[in-house]
Design a protein that fits this description.
Layout: E1 32-36, H1 43-51, E2 68-74, E3 77-83, H2 95-106, E4 111-117, H3 121-133, E5 138-143, H4 145-150, E6 154-155, H5 157-164, E7 168-170, H6 179-191, H7 209-220, H8 230-238, H9 242-251, H10 256-267, H11 274-290, E8 294-295, H12 304-313, H13 315-365, H14 369-375, H15 381-410, H16 412-426, H17 434-440, H18 444-450, H19 457-470, H20 474-484, H21 488-512, H22 532-567, H23 569-583, H24 590-599, H25 601-611, H26 617-628, H27 634-644, H28 646-674
Parallel strand pairs: 1-3, 1-4, 4-5, 5-7
Antiparallel strand pairs: 2-3, 6-8
Helix pairs in contact: 3-11, 7-8, 7-10, 13-15, 13-20, 15-20, 15-22, 15-25, 17-18, 18-27, 19-21, 19-28, 20-25, 20-26, 21-26, 23-24, 24-25, 25-26, 26-28, 27-28
Length: 678
């Protein structure tokens, strides 16, 4: 794909998974309805409308990386519904597009509901044509009609339905417009008996004669044993789709050589890539179909939202906007969450009330000191684990999740991706990688999973390294901000060092790793005022995820620490870390915090927060920097093993551990020589 940014509101791939997941339904044996389409057109809203299951609806690439299933009952008909990852066409580029196409090929849905954006119907209709040509039972939902109306774009839906020969519904799903009529039409389409594969060449799609001849040669060699039409298979083979070629190798191995020869004979007749020629043919066909369907205004109105959107993606204006956004985020998360709320809960609630009461109660009811230390004292489940989770981390996570919900619903993240694409190209990534990176500030574990949305194995590996090294999760980041206690100088140095490490390691890794230059294409959703209900529901579900998934880990870590201290293992590990923390100029007690960091990054950061009063400003800065760059937590390490394998996970950890100490030591030396913060 080519790099693109089509007029402000027009350009983005699919969304990033948040740190929680919706309930999954058993739809085995039911008629299947699969929802497909590009990101940010309302697929997840449609899924929620049909099934009633809440799914995070985000304006940045990756919400539906995982396939979501649900049940829809209308009258006496019960149907399984699948919300698929975003895709731009039948030729997959990213892992999420491969998953979406695999669903169409292996699940054989009774109905494929293609959702597209009414404002950008001309650019999205080619995928509809591909689905029809492939023999899929297609139902078209033209969504976001309210936004098209505001821009003066008029669509003749009955004429579009007539020209395509498939059912078409016009909706504004977020407002409920057209929902009732759409459901009735969907039920009618599902009630019809399943038809055999009936794909065929579309008369509107016209290729150059040499391409047409090649398609006919390939079609002649294909038996009707595939989950899509012979014409669609031939088109994908001309586009060098390796999965389709493997499919043929498995069913008709004797035809592979002839097909490859036919593909080569077509390619040698042009200097242009065949996938470009084919995409142009679909695009021209869509334009012909829409000529009498869509009426654009003579001049599009320039709105404040469109001017702001353009300003956000231009370096001259986009960087100041980014700085303002970061300042607001710092004030909300770093000051309100990490200082005001944390200080209140830690000192006034736990420090003054809960911890003394727990120690007093344990002294009355448990006579054995060893057992008392499991729940109270310095490292107890309640006095340490629960205090860290509720008093230090929860307010930071809560304010971050609230702010993040506002940012993602506004549509700012894809514009940020456009803004930093040029910088990311220098480190072997592209603007699309901003999604897992930003998600990493919420949860590095889930962000590592979302790296699967990147196009190449090289990009996914680079992103995983940088997430493990230089992206602090929300709780860790918030605690770090609390450590600095509003001192802008410390924050500036910490930000400069972490940012410099991020760019340096990314640049070096990109130079050392072979691979092609990443491309970038992104659909920009419109800027919107976030809806309060959506923001609070998202924040609530993410907080629920934190309490359900993360809170128990704090308790478990406390038990491990208690047991480790009981058998002496904890003291041995701390003793092994003491010479290392001394080497970078830190007091011996920080070895305990770094050991906590092995369990969870935020747990270790909270340990540093406890020690802040016993360190100089320079030591706090060195400790915060080293902890940020320190080993990934157990959960992130486990996900890295799952996504990249044991060798990669161990290799990343083996690099990060000494590198973090090296950076900490160099920073300590620089601060000493300058006399800063002594």
């Amino acid at each position: 794909m080519q790099e693109a940014q089509l007029e402000g509101i027009e350009t983005t791939p699919s969304s990033g998974a948040s740190c929680h997941g919706p309930a999954q339904a058993d739809i085995t044996g039911l008629p299947l309805l699969a929802i497909v389409g590009t990101p940010n057109v309302g697929k997840s809203v449609l899924f929620n409308t049909l099934t009633g299951i809440y799914v995070t609806v985000s304006n940045y690439p990756g919400t539906t990386v995982e396939v979501t299933r649900g049940n829809w009952r209308i009258e006496d008909l019960e149907t399984g519904v699948m919300d698929t990852p975003g895709m731009y066409g039948l030729l997959p580029i990213t892992e999420e597009e491969r998953v979406a196409r695999r669903i169409l090929l292996t699940e054989r849905p009774n109905l494929v509901v293609h959702v597209l954006d009414a404002k950008n119907v001309e650019r999205m209709l080619p995928m509809t044509l591909q689905l029809i040509e492939a023999g899929q039972p297609v139902f078209l939902v033209v969504n976001l009609m309210d936004e098209a109306d505001r821009l003066g774009i008029a669509l003749d839906i009955p004429e579009l339905e007539r020209k395509l020969g498939i059912p078409v519904a016009a909706t504004a799903l977020a407002q409920g417009r057209g929902t009732k009529e759409m459901k009735a039409e969907l039920a009618k389409a599902l009630s019809k008996p399943a038809l055999p594969l009936a794909g065929a060449p579309l008369p509107e799609v016209r290729y150059p004669q040499f391409v047409q001849s090649g398609l006919e040669q390939i079609e002649a060699q294909l038996d009707p044993v595939y989950p899509m039409s012979s014409r669609s298979m031939a088109v994908l083979l001309l586009e060098n789709d390796p999965e389709v070629l493997e499919l043929i190798r498995g069913k008709q191995p004797d035809r592979v050589a002839g097909i490859q020869a036919a593909v080569k004979s077509v390619q040698v007749q042009t200097r242009q890539p065949l996938n470009y020629i084919i995409a142009r043919a679909y695009r021209e066909a869509a334009q012909k179909i829409l000529a009498s369907v869509v009426d654009f205004p003579e001049q599009r109105a320039t709105t404040f939202a469109s001017r702001l959107s353009n300003a956000m993606i231009r370096p001259l204006t986009g960087l100041p906007i980014l700085l303002v956004a970061l300042f607001v985020l710092y004030e909300f998360v770093g000051v309100l969450g990490a200082q005001t709320l944390v200080n209140f809960l830690e000192k006034n609630v736990f420090g003054a009330i809960i911890n003394p009461w727990i120690d007093f109660l344990l002294g009355k009811i448990i006579p054995w000191p060893v057992l008392r230390s499991l729940f109270g004292g310095q490292f107890g489940i309640i006095t340490l684990g629960v205090r860290y989770a509720i008093a230090i981390v929860l307010p930071i996570v809560g304010t971050f999740f609230l702010a993040f919900s506002v940012i993602e619903d506004s549509g700012y993240l894809p514009r940020l991706a456009m803004l930093i694409d040029r910088v990311f190209k220098k480190i072997g990534l592209n603007g699309r990688a901003v999604i897992p990176m930003v998600l990493g500030f919420g949860c590095d574990t889930m962000a590592t999973i979302v790296t699967r949305t990147l196009e190449t194995k090289r990009e996914r590996l680079l992103a995983t390294i940088l997430l493990s090294l230089a992206i602090p999760c929300s709780a860790q980041l918030g605690v770090m901000l609390g450590l600095f206690n509003g001192q802008i100088g410390m924050l500036a140095i910490w930000t400069g060092v972490i940012g410099g490490v991020f760019l340096l390691v990314g640049w070096l890794a990109a130079k050392l790793m072979p691979g092609e230059r990443p491309t970038f294409y992104m659909e920009l959703p419109p800027l919107r005022l976030p809806r309060l209900r959506n923001i609070f529901v998202k924040t609530y579900t993410r907080m629920e995820w934190y309490l359900r998934e993360v809170f128990p880990l704090f308790i478990l870590a406390s038990v491990f620490i208690w047991f480790g201290r009981l058998v002496g293992l904890f003291d041995l590990l701390v003793a092994a870390l003491v010479p290392m923390v001394r080497l970078i100029g830190l007091p011996d007690q920080t070895a305990v915090a770094f050991l906590f960091g092995f369990f969870r990054r935020d747990y270790g950061a909270a340990g540093l927060y406890d020690l802040r009063s016993s360190m100089t400003s320079a030591q706090v800065l060195v400790a915060a920097t080293t902890m940020t760059l320190f080993m990934p937590c157990i959960a992130q390490f486990g996900v890295t093993v799952k996504e990249r394998g044991w060798k990669v996970a161990l290799g990343i950890s083996a690099f990060i551990f000494p590198f973090a100490l090296l950076v900490g030591g160099l920073l300590n030396l620089a601060l000493k020589l300058s006399g800063w913060g002594a």
